[in-house]
Each structure stands twice: as C-alpha cells, then as structure tokens.
Design brief:
The chain has 143 residues and is an alpha+beta fold. The chain has one domain (2-139): Nuclear Transport Factor 2, Chain: A (Roll), CATH 3.10.450. The chain is 33% helix and 45% strand. The chain contains four helices and six strands, in the order ααββαββββα. The protein has helices at residues 2-20, 26-30, 52-67, 133-139; strands at residues 33-41, 44-49, 70-82, 87-99, 105-119, 122-130. The radius of gyration is 15 Å and the shape is globular. The relative contact order is 0.19. It holds the Pfam family DUF6841.
Length: 143
C-alpha cells in the first residue's frame, strides 16, 4: 500500500502544480478521489460526491489559489500508516510557495491527513483532515 499511496501523491502534486499554472486536468484530479468523500477542518465536517459539482469546486479552488499568488505546491514529506489491507492514512507535509503583492516569495509548510482506500488495486482519497488554512495564510500576509 505504501508504494501505491506514494505514487498517488506524486501524481497529485504534479496535477496540482499544472492546475496552478492554468492547466487543470479536472478529470485526472477527480480520479484520485473515491466516489464519496468526507473532509474535516476547524469550520466543520463536510461530505461530497465525486461528480460534476465536485469538479466545479476543484476548478474554483485552483482559481482561488492562483488569485492569492500560489506558485507551487510540493510534498515535503509523506508518512503512510496502514490501517488494514484496504485502508490507510497518509500524513502529507506540504510546502507551498506564494508570490506576495510586493514581488517577494513566501513559503508556508502545513500538514494534511488523508484517508485512502484501495479500490481495484489503486488508492483513492476518501477523506482529509486539515488545519485552518485561511488563518494560516492570514498569519503570513497571504490572501
């Protein structure tokens, strides 16, 4: 499972960065996710279906990342914990680079925990747990 999850996040990182540069492959991004998902953050818990509305939300999210000056998103570290033969949790430490309005770059590291399930031999993200991204960005003068 660990090798498959590492490949998943290598692909996620590559697709994320393409999207930041206006080349979003929404079908490929959506294919990384399970048919139903759950997300938890300080604002609450939400559920979603992997459908056209989800793809529209992805497009809107990447547009927002570009609008606040996000230049790159890199997996700084990845730790996979196997729960059972079909489920695992991936702790991803992301390193995000932003272009400030004054022309300088700011790099911010943050962690997200992803829940993954093996489906037809491939891992799919079915959940994520994240910190308060908006507060973190404001603390660094981004947005």
């Amino acid at each position: 499972m660990e090798h498959a999850v590492r490949r998943l996040f290598e692909q996620y990182e590559r697709l994320f960065n393409h999207a930041l540069h206006g080349q979003a492959d929404l079908e490929a991004l959506a294919a990384l996710y399970a048919p139903e998902m759950i997300g938890a953050a300080p604002a609450g818990v939400r559920t979603a279906r992997n459908d056209d509305q989800f793809r529209a939300a992805l497009a809107q999210g990447y547009a927002q990342y570009r609008a606040i000056g996000t230049q790159a998103m890199r997996v700084r570290s990845l730790r996979v914990s196997e729960i059972d033969a079909l489920h695992g949790m991936a702790q991803v430490l992301w390193s995000a680079t932003y272009l400030r309005k004054d022309g300088t770059n700011e790099t911010i590291d943050f962690a997200v925990h992803y829940l993954v399930q093996m489906q037809d031999g491939a891992p799919k993200v079915f959940g994520w747990i994240s910190d308060d991204e908006q507060t973190l960005l404001r603390q660094h003068g981004i947005g």
